[in-house]
């Protein structure tokens, strides 16, 4: 890589930036699961309640909370990022796209941002700093 940014990425800052990216995406995603499963942060629909566990929203909450936690920690990162990206694509087309074509109008922009973020994480995996690297030399998934 050449140029100003390439110089820093080659010197190891790329590992730090990717670690921060993966961690922040995982933690943000966990918050949505915590809302659905535990009623935290305003709860499901802002009512302070939680969703029924054996429902589509319950499944989404499980994927969001535990998938976000796994991505944050760097455990089975590619697997959970792949599952989360599929969930976000399904959520977009089920809940947002029928309302309007444009994401900014159908409020689906966040679902699409998570979708793309998880695609990136699924492609690049856990990175250098991950809990899975403590137990194994290479990623399992």
Molecular structure report:
The protein has one domain (3-135). The chain has 6 helices and no strands. It has helices at residues 3-38, 56-73, 77-96, 103-106, 109-124, 132-135. It is mainly alpha-helical and 141 residues long.
Task: Record the SSE blueprint.
Blueprint: H1 3-38, H2 56-73, H3 77-96, H4 103-106, H5 109-124, H6 132-135
Helix pairs in contact: 1-2, 2-3, 3-5
Largest sheet: none
**Secondary-structure element order, as H and E?**
HHHHHH
Mean model confidence by pLDDT:
90
Rg (CA only): 17 Å
Beta-strand level of the residues, as a percent range? under 5%
The total count of strands amounts to 0
Low-confidence stretches: none
The secondary structure category is mainly alpha
What is the 3D form?
A: globular
The helix count comes to 6
**Number of domains in the coordinates?**
1
Tell me the helix content.
55-70%
